[in-house]
From TrEMBL:
Keywords: Membrane, Transmembrane, Transmembrane helix
Record-linked InterPro entries: Endo/Exo/Phosphatase_dom_1, RuvA_2-like
Domain of life according to the entry: Bacteria
Protein name according to UniProt: Helix-hairpin-helix protein
Native species: Gelidibacter sediminis
GO cellular component terms given for this protein: plasma membrane
Membrane spanning residue stretches: 16-34
PANTHER family: ENDONUCLEASE/EXONUCLEASE/PHOSPHATASE FAMILY DOMAIN-CONTAINING PROTEIN 1, ENDONUCLEASE_EXONUCLEASE_PHOSPHATASE FAMILY DOMAIN-CONTAINING PROTEIN 1
Length: 297
């Protein structure tokens, strides 16, 4: 019986053993002759500091972008949430809300501090953000209908009793031209204005709306004429009129109507017509004419 030798290899096996031996020799040579000592890289401290500064700068810019912007605002309308975000304490916010609940208005930064009792440091931060309405920062002189007959600087033209005056709504151009200072042009302007409205004038106040009539001439006209048959007007209740109703009144557009309703809501209703003068962009010069179309119940 023949014994099989374990050392007899085929050609492919001998080639594999030979290749393995070569690889062992190569790796042994690498291990003994290669230098595996860590290479120390010299760092540039200034360059690293520059990189750190750039990174910090980018982080700051990103943080600033994430901070919510605060735009100018009217301090009268600060809510609980807004007051909290501005750094006010609950007590300071409550003082402001209690003050506004009495329908009182803050018109300056100093008054804001007196009402809320915020600190000087917080006021210094908030004051540049305060934006008060134009009628507070740039108050206008109230203009209303003048009783020319009571003006001491106007000549007394010999006042007539009402029953002797002619009706302004039926006067002819010839009648009007009898007034000193009224010629063909002005008499034509008066009649054209009257004819714009079915029924004519509501009140003599509307004479101030006619181009070319000076206060002195108006005084002479009202001495000889009166509106005896006024045009009927369905007056709107100022406290219930809608925006679409308000814009039917002379000199009130949608913007003014919006501000009127806004003020009406804030005040829980108007108590007098004079409060209209506090409405933003209200045409103060036409106040008396606008009142002809309104009522307060």
């Amino acid at each position: 019986m023949a014994i099989k030798s374990h050392f007899k290899f085929s050609n492919s096996q001998r080639n594999g053993i030979f290749l393995l031996a070569i690889l062992i020799v190569i790796f042994q040579g690498i291990y003994f002759f290669a230098n595996f000592t860590p290479v120390h890289v010299e760092s540039d401290a200034r360059q690293l500091e520059s990189f750190r500064n750039q990174i910090d700068s980018l982080k700051r810019l990103q943080a600033e972008k994430n901070i919510p912007k605060v735009y100018p605002f009217n301090p009268n309308y600060i809510t609980d949430f807004k007051g909290y975000t501005l750094g006010m304490t609950p007590e300071e916010i409550d003082r402001l809300l209690a003050y506004r609940a009495k329908d009182q208005w803050i018109n300056s930064a100093l008054q804001f501090q007196q009402v809320t009792k915020v600190s000087d440091s917080l006021l210094a931060v908030l004051q540049p953000l305060f934006k008060f309405p134009e009628w507070v920062t740039e108050p206008k002189t109230k203009t209303s209908w003048i009783d020319y007959n009571k003006q001491p600087n106007l000549k007394n033209y010999g006042l007539k009793a009402d029953h002797l005056k002619l009706d302004l709504n039926t006067a002819t151009a010839h009648d009007l031209q009898k007034v000193n200072g009224i010629g063909e042009k002005l008499s034509d302007n008066i009649i054209k204005y009257r004819n714009k409205f079915k029924g004519g004038f509501i009140s003599e106040i509307q004479l101030q709306d006619i181009h070319g009539l000076t206060p002195e001439v108006i005084a002479r006209v009202t001495n000889d004429f009166a509106v005896k048959t006024p045009r009927h007007v369905e007056r709107l209740d100022l406290n219930t009129a809608t925006k679409d109703q308000l814009v039917t009144i002379q000199y009130i557009d949608y913007e003014v109507a919006h501000y009127i309703i806004e003020q009406r809501t804030l005040r829980d209703g108007f108590k007098s017509f004079d409060e209209l003068l506090m409405v933003k962009n209200f045409p103060i010069q036409k106040f008396e004419i606008i009142k002809l179309y309104l009522k307060l119940n």
